[in-house]
Here is the input.
Amino acid sequence: MTAETARALVEAHAITRDYPSGGGIVHALRGIDLIIQAGEFVALRGRSGSGKTTLINILIGIDNPTTGDVFVLGHHLKELNENERARLRRESIGIMFQNAHLFPALTALENVELPLRLARTPGKERIRLAREALEHVGLGKRWNHRGLELSGGEQQRVALARALVHKPRFIVADEPTGNLDSLTGRDIAQLLRDISHTEKIGMLIATHDPIIYNSADRVLQINDGLIAEHQNKTTGDPQQSRFQMRT
Ligand SMILES: Nc1ncnc2c1ncn2[C@@H]1O[C@H](COP(=O)(O)OP(=O)(O)OP(=O)(O)O)[C@@H](O)[C@H]1O
Here is the structure.
């Protein structure tokens, strides 16, 4: 796959998403524009039902916008077929959820290796990369523990190692600290932010957790399918979105 043009890591232009529902239509996204650069740690904040998951699914190409365009690493998602999108995710995107979704009977190492198995990476290389990813999240010594033997925070670290193992350029996470106590959540937030900055990975974290949005470079506030406020944490200034809003 060759990228179409040099663009930001992720760009979304005028994204809308309508769902047919009960004989009517739910306007889940109503005109979203956003840009995420390499190495930016961005929080997506909004109440339940505001459109966070819908937006994330569209940015990683597992759902399509009703209207609008998404570019990831220069690829215009509209122009990729399902296989090409799956390949883009396999090669360049990491995904984390609220629950770690580990296979409990597999070791941490085996869980982290899974995406590499799907990508048919040879065995020795898989183990090397999985060990390296576990080291990266501070679990180098626990590689042989099974999913069930790990604490909630450790399981989320394994999930992060799994999201990192193929060296993605963009990571999305949906409430990654949602099931953790506040101290463990703080550790995971710090780790995500550090890795985003040191590895130059763009991260978009949908969250209700103040620990995440207080440590983010930028906070996008989404209300009823629109980005209502765009706070740049480097200046600390809340501002109305400079992006155009559509109704
Ligand atoms: N498959 C679907 N069919 C119909 N409506 C849907 C569907 N998926 C989402 N919606 C609606 O779209 C809106 C946005 O939902 P979304 O799941 O994106 O919100 P969210 O901000 O992620 O919420 P939460 O924080 O609870 O996960 C909601 O009104 C929801 O009911």
Summary: The domain at 41-50+81-232 is CATH 3.40.50.300 (Rossmann fold). Residues 19, 21, 26, 28, 46, 48-54 surround adenosine-5'-triphosphate (CB under 6 Å). The longest helix spans residues 182-199.
